């Protein structure tokens, strides 16, 4: 474990310490504390006789095993989490009275769970999907949950349609296929007949839906919330998490292969980064709109299928979150954590976003069945760091032992305690928004524009990103069996961009539309990942090595890689130390059986004088696949000759050769920062 790894010394961590148990070196006991003398054999009537019911240890052990599983989440079942802290950069007192957003430099413990949405708990992590990004702040005023995604908009505008959306995207009920995929008839039938999804689909089929890691994706609160300050003045607000490493993705062919090579790729990346001391960091940004400006935009700011373009409403960076500790137990923490957008603190309130309003009911409801009752707040990972007092009693899993005879309000036996707190004493007060109107089942006319921001997103993409979106459409719709659904979708997205729709139609063999398009020319550069932060930090470099190499040069290059924050790992034909008479022997981290190019960000080909046909074949495939995925390729020593024999042009973008070791490292590092070289000819 790296010396950089630390355990954050905060009140939440100290609270959890009371629940941690280390069984190492201890005697086995029952759950009642009775020491157990035998755990290999059940109690029998004779050594070949029947097992006896009086064997209480067997019954307890088996009963607990039979009840170990709880229902997985209907959505966001596949998730991974970590602990950390949030540090405030500057006071937000002007906008909100939330205490954790008042004092610059103050730190608040957090717990963050990342997830995929559609797949089951056992699905692969590189599915084309939305990623959940849920953050629990353990504040002195109670828990605040910012429950968001890595995409800032959503498929639907009203929560009443959420069951329909999820039913459509889940495996089709007649055959249970496909798992964790939207590339099937029912999902695209839903899209074609619920065209409010147009904007979200553009994001869903972009590179954002196949992120390189949890550490390299944005997070969004999705909904419009309210900030309310001490004077009672309100502002509309949207929340953003901006990763310090930038926003980066894999390519689709790579994603499919990673799911086979390492279905735990994202969780492993997060876990190992924290263990190595490379703590993931995200800056918290807010977009703020004064209440009086609610109707000054060409979209409804409460519509969850719309963004607030950053060029129109700048993102103000107000703090930083650092994830610095892995969980001790995945079930007890990651699986039992309960998020809810209704977990707020004074100074943060809701708006009339109909999707948000529905979530305020749904999240509590689902925790009741998943965690066995109303006391899920008592589980260690969910307990607030501040004390809680109320008249709620009993129920499954009750931990609190309430003293006294009173469990109701109002009362005189306990001097009317616990009593409500006034707003001045920290009591939560709902924002007094004036509301009036007839009770109707409809939606606002201002919610009926479904295509303008879908076009904005398309206009904002780079040419490679546009190509990826078209390819994603062709893949997804190519899996749809019903030609009528394919045609409906193509005709629908002609309203976004006609040329895009024509290319999709030609790719899947349906009639190309002749009408459509949009006169919207506006762009938002912030939407393109090409404009994101470029960094070589924490990038994994595969060093392809065989025996009889110059270890002094290779060792020096690897050390310089590490100084640049990169993580070189040796891949060789066999494990163990690799023989050489040119310096100390280096040891392989992987073989070609246990490693693959899709698991690395770049390749450094060295080879060795002893490289035989097998090495050349294995290394050659490794390098060519990385080249086809537009990754940086470096080659020195015997690796240069091998590279030339692979018909990979040494002058191609992102291919680094020649020069002394220092010059090579500088140029290779710059190539790694670029992440991909989309203008490379990979035919």
TrEMBL record:
<dbReference type="Pfam" id="PF06628">
    <property type="entry name" value="Catalase-rel"/>
</dbReference>
<keyword id="KW-0376">Hydrogen peroxide</keyword>
<dbReference type="GO" id="GO:0004096">
    <property type="term" value="F:catalase activity"/>
</dbReference>
<dbReference type="InterPro" id="IPR024712">
    <property type="entry name" value="Catalase_clade2"/>
</dbReference>
<keyword id="KW-0408">Iron</keyword>
<dbReference type="InterPro" id="IPR029062">
    <property type="entry name" value="Class_I_gatase-like"/>
</dbReference>
<keyword id="KW-0575">Peroxidase</keyword>
<dbReference type="InterPro" id="IPR024708">
    <property type="entry name" value="Catalase_AS"/>
</dbReference>
<dbReference type="InterPro" id="IPR043156">
    <property type="entry name" value="Catalase_clade2_helical"/>
</dbReference>
<dbReference type="InterPro" id="IPR002226">
    <property type="entry name" value="Catalase_haem_BS"/>
</dbReference>
<dbReference type="InterPro" id="IPR020835">
    <property type="entry name" value="Catalase_sf"/>
</dbReference>
<keyword id="KW-0479">Metal-binding</keyword>
<dbReference type="InterPro" id="IPR011614">
    <property type="entry name" value="Catalase_core"/>
</dbReference>
<dbReference type="InterPro" id="IPR018028">
    <property type="entry name" value="Catalase"/>
</dbReference>
<dbReference type="InterPro" id="IPR010582">
    <property type="entry name" value="Catalase_immune_responsive"/>
</dbReference>
<dbReference type="Pfam" id="PF00199">
    <property type="entry name" value="Catalase"/>
</dbReference>
<keyword id="KW-0560">Oxidoreductase</keyword>
<comment type="similarity">
    <text>Belongs to the catalase family. HPII subfamily.</text>
</comment>
<dbReference type="InterPro" id="IPR041399">
    <property type="entry name" value="Catalase_large_C"/>
</dbReference>
<comment type="function">
    <text>Decomposes hydrogen peroxide into water and oxygen; serves to protect cells from the toxic effects of hydrogen peroxide.</text>
</comment>
<keyword id="KW-0349">Heme</keyword>
<feature type="domain" description="Catalase core">
    <location>
        <begin position="29"/>
        <end position="417"/>
    </location>
</feature>
<dbReference type="Pfam" id="PF18011">
    <property type="entry name" value="Catalase_C"/>
</dbReference>
<protein>
    <recommendedName>
        <fullName>Catalase</fullName>
        <ecNumber>1.11.1.6</ecNumber>
    </recommendedName>
</protein>
């Amino acid at each position: 474990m790296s010396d950089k790894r630390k355990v954050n010394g905060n009140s939440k961590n100290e609270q959890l310490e009371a629940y941690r148990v280390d069984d190492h070196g201890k005697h086995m006991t029952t759950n009642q504390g009775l020491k157990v003398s035998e755990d290999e054999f059940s109690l029998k009537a004779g050594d070949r006789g029947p097992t006896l019911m009086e064997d209480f240890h067997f019954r307890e052990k088996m009963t607990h095993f039979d009840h170990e599983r709880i229902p997985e989440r209907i959505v966001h079942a596949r998730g991974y989490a970590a602990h950390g802290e949030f540090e405030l950069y500057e006071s937000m007192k002007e906008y909100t009275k939330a205490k954790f957003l008042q004092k610059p430099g103050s730190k608040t413990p957090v717990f963050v769970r990342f997830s995929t949405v559609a797949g089951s708990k056992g699905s692969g992590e590189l599915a084309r999907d939305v990623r959940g990004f849920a953050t629990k702040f353990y504040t002195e005023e109670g828990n605040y949950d910012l429950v968001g995604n890595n995409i800032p908009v959503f498929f639907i505008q009203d929560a009443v349609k959420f069951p329909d959306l999820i039913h459509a995207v889940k495996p089709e009920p007649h055959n249970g296929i496909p798992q964790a995929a939207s590339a099937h008839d029912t999902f695209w039938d839903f899209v074609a007949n619920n065209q409010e999804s147009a904007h979200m689909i553009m994001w869903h089929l972009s590179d954002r839906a196949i992120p390189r890691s949890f550490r390299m994706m944005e997070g969004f609160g999705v909904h419009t919330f309210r900030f309310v300050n001490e004077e009672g003045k309100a502002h509309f607000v949207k929340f953003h998490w901006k990763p310090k490493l930038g926003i980066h993705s894999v390519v689709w062919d790579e994603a499919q292969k990673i799911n086979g090579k390492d279905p735990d790729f994202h969780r492993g990346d997060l876990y190992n980064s924290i263990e190595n001391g490379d703590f993931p960091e995200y800056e918290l940004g807010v977009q703020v709109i004064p209440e009086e400006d609610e109707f000054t935009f060409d979209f409804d700011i409460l519509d969850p299928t719309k963004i607030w373009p950053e060029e129109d409403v700048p993102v103000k960076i107000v703090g930083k979150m650092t994830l610095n500790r892995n969980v001790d137990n995945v079930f007890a923490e990651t699986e039992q954590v309960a998020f809810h957008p209704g977990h707020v603190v004074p100074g943060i309130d809701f708006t009339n976003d109909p999707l948000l309003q529905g979530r305020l009911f749904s999240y509590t409801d689902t925790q009741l069945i998943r965690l066995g009752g109303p006391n899920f707040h008592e589980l260690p990972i969910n307990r607030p760091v501040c004390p809680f007092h109320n008249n709620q009693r009993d129920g499954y899993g009750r931990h609190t032992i309430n003293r006294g005879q009173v469990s109701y309000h109002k009362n005189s036996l306990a001097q009317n305690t616990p009593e409500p707190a006034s707003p001045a004493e920290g009591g939560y007060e709902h924002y007094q928004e004036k509301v009036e109107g007839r009770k109707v089942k409809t939606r606002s006319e201002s919610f009926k524009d479904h295509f303008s921001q879908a076009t904005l997103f398309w206009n904002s993409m780079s040419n490679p990103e546009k190509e990826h979106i078209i390819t994603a459409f062709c893949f997804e719709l190519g899996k749809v069996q019903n030609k009528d659904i394919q045609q409906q979708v193509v005709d629908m997205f002609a309203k976004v961009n006609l040329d895009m729709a024509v290319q999709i139609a030609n790719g899947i063999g349906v009639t190309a539309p002749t009408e459509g398009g949009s006169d919207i020319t506006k762009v938002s550069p912030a939407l393109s990942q090409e404009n994101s932060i470029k960094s070589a930090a924490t990038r994994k470099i595969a060093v392809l090595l065989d025996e009889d190499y110059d270890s002094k040069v290779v060792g020096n290059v690897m050390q310089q890689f590490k100084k640049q924050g990169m993580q070189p790992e040796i891949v060789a034909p066999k494990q163990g130390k690799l023989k050489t008479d040119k310096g100390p022997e280096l040891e392989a981290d992987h073989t070609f059986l246990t490693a693959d190019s899709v698991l690395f960000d770049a390749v450094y080909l060295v080879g060795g004088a002893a490289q035989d046909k097998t090495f050349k074949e294995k290394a050659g495939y490794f390098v060519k696949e990385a080249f086809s995925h537009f990754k940086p390729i470096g080659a020195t020593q015997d690796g240069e000759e091998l590279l030339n024999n692979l018909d990979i042009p040494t002058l191609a973008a992102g291919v680094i050769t020649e020069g002394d070791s220092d010059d090579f490292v500088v140029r290779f590092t710059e190539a790694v920062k670029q992440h991909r070289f989309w203008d490379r000819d990979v035919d």
